[in-house]
Amino acid sequence: MKYVVAFGRFWWNFIVGDDWRVAAGLAVAFVLTWVLAHHGIAAWWVLPLAVVTLLVGSVAREARDGG
Amino acid sequence: MSSDALLFLATFLASAVEAVEALTIVLAVGTVRGWRSTLYGVAAATLVLAAIVAALGPALSAIPITTLRLVVGALLLSFGLQWLRKAVLRAGGYKPLHDEAAAFASGRAEAGSATASTGRMDWYSFTVAFKGVLLEGLEVAFIVIGFGSTQSRLGLAVGAAAAAVVVVVAVGVVVRGPLARVPENTLKYVVGVLLTSFGIFWGGEGAGVEWPGGDAAILAIAGFVGLVSILLTRELRRRRERLKLVEAKA
Question: With an 8 Å Cβ cutoff, is A48 touching chain B?
């Protein structure tokens, strides 16, 4: 069991990293992009906007909590 | 700059940064406990990484390109944002810079205090070298597989990663020490921007986006992500300075 937990934790840290909110935000942005694109609506702006918002939010949180 | 050149640059720089960190671990163990078992550990980890790339790279070509781009784009975006976030925080003064000299000294101290080997094989050296190279190399392996399969340029991505490792090891052998002068954070910054940009581009295409300007959009995305990161770093530095001033006055 210990090895399963360690294995799961490794992959969580590897893919999600320090801030799970960024990974969750990206998942939402991908779903929104897919939905818009498959309804014929221009969706190219969603991911760049999401990335900037998530990066700024995550960095600001870390700076506030750690600085 | 073509997307092939950007692909080569991103893979080369990502591999170089991880190779510098792996080299520090290997040097610390090898110089304290001997090279034989350490190099066996390096060789074993390199074989595992090569097997991962050799097995997954061609296998991924069987997956429809749209699905592949969505998955690879999402993974690259996740990796890229992790690199970029840390690089921005370090450049802004909110995280300490990675210090190879300190990591080398700490690795040597740990290797020296571990139980001495009694047999022909020093399992401590083997395990530390194996783990260090495997963990540092795993992300590079995924980047190589991702770039290689999505762009159908596995050979180019493998070549870029191999070239980076050769350069880092050659320099390490010449200077006989950790590469403490390599501007690691700047490299991580650039890699973060490139991985994030490729992640946005391919992830977007996989989700059904038609990019204005076609493939040229990758350059605009990289410029946009780079500019935002620079502005964010400047703002963090200003904030840090303001806090220092307030603390000095208090």
Answer: yes
